[in-house]
């Protein structure tokens, strides 16, 4: 059956059924005018992100469940970057009339499945038939039970720059999809694009052990590092020889002539964490994240003074300015 | 300048600037990975609603500021129906590339203006260029500092049915717009459609004084009353002669042959409150809302047993079954 035949009220009811999970904190879930939850301790963390067909995804690139998971994961990644734990989500969907009802069910199940795995309860939802593309937007509330969120503004000259996981994988995966290459040898690259994982545990560990600044790498290392530098009034030096590159990225670069350095510096959507730490705590934080979250953590450079701008230093010693180092509208300048 | 020329990052920055209001509860607002707020007392209330161009509005019917206000008002109305006070909002927007930047600024200012008047701080936002229609979605968190939310499920046979304001006005206003009638004699009707007011104070007063059930009238009295009856396993009797009709509705009905009763029973988008109260408290609640909120409150019928279904009784004594009285998917049945 198609969404257009089902009607909006019935579509909303299907969303309600998928998201109707019992959660101890939820006194009334979806189905009244609004949901009611018990008070919970700690500072609250808020974020919202949308995925739009034709802009952020194509239906033939992501299964409906992958789209659902990704729409939650990109929001979870923002909470991870504060060192927060997720609590509640609200889901907005606008679906073309020719979307199958099964598609919507699977999309919602993708959200609910990742939600269940990460402690998220969906407490609100609305939907309408879209005269245009498919639109999925999520809003998320999380908490920091004790202590403070890690902001972008705390980096100090001399601090070390750590990144989790591998860089450039998602951008390479997207390139392979866009160029219709054989994906078989590159499962990790297209998985990085289709099924990004929010680094919630790494973020919490970094916060607990005293990271000075943090953000997630959604727009590419150069761009996201520039946000940290802007907010912290600092510069940075990245050693490109240290950038963590997956073996599949090296293989793809070789086979298709891709610029690995550019993908690692400017490729978006890896949803890894960029963690700034004092030199004294660098090894402890890096080691504890590896141990707790079981993911690679790599030191790729250091924070410098603002006057130094943001530089990438190549193994041969040559330097390139990366990132604009200022905000187009001056709000961060 | 058009949104398509500005780029997404710059568009997001404009949203940030409009919503960058200082609020004592907000430790970090829009501009980091996520916003941070202080803990606040009481149960939390969650709702989300979207407005889609071509489905919920047309750009030539609502000014951008009106669209912004309405997108917040329809969410506030859900909180009002729980007796809650709003706290934080998150805004998602997808804009066609040919939208002017001024349009988006005014839309955001509409949200921010009503937010400021009702105690809402916008703590999150995301935007993208839409290949289709304009999409505005809001998610809202509110609180009930003490006591319990008023759910749809508490109505008991014998309880009285109250409604705030006038019914059918917004539907008549929409009809006038759709049929391109002279709007001049009908300012209150099209205002009801373009600038609905969430009945926050009335909702809080009703909750404080012990209303047994409550919902907002967004789909029309018959439909919203059936939600109450479903959740409460009850029936209802509405006296159509008592339905509060604005003088302009009577005038429009006379001039254009509109069915006033049908508009009042089934017209949507009035965003008035449907308040169920025990007979003992009826006068006190009704009187206190009139005094506090300065709006009409009208007793229009009573809750009956489930077997009685939902009936509209005309002044001549004839009865009509209204509302389906059961949910299409059985979830409420």
* Strand count of chain A: 13
What Rg of chain A do the Cα atoms give? 21 Å
N→C terminal distance of chain A? 52 Å
CATH superfamily of the largest domain in chain A: PurM-like C-terminal domain
Poorly predicted sequence stretches spanning 5 or more consecutive residues of chain A:
325-333
Assembly type: homodimer
Describe this structure in words.
The structure is a homodimer of 333-residue chains. By secondary structure, chain A is α+β, with helices and mostly antiparallel strands. The first copy, chain A, has 11 helices and 13 strands. In chain A, the strands form 3 sheets. In chain A, strands 8-10-7-11-9-12-13 form a 7-stranded mixed sheet, with helices on both faces. In chain A, a hairpin with a 5-residue loop joins strand 12 and strand 13. The C terminus of chain A is likely disordered. Chains A and B meet through helix 2, strand 2, strand 3, strand 4 and strand 5 of A and helix 2, strand 2, strand 3, strand 4 and strand 5 of B. Strand 3 of chain A pairs antiparallel with strand 2 of chain B, so a sheet runs across the interface.
Task: Outline the fold blueprint.
The structure is a homodimer of 333-residue chains.
Chain A: H1 3-6, H2 8-19, E1 26-28, E2 35-37, E3 43-52, H3 64-80, E4 85-96, H4 101-118, E5 121-130, E6 135-144, E7 160-164, H5 169-178, H6 187-194, H7 200-208, E8 213-217, H8 221-232, E9 234-239, H9 247-256, H10 260-266, E10 272-277, H11 282-293, E11 297-305, E12 310-313, E13 319-321
Parallel strand pairs in A: 4-5, 9-12
Antiparallel strand pairs in A: 1-2, 3-6, 4-6, 7-10, 7-11, 8-10, 9-11, 12-13
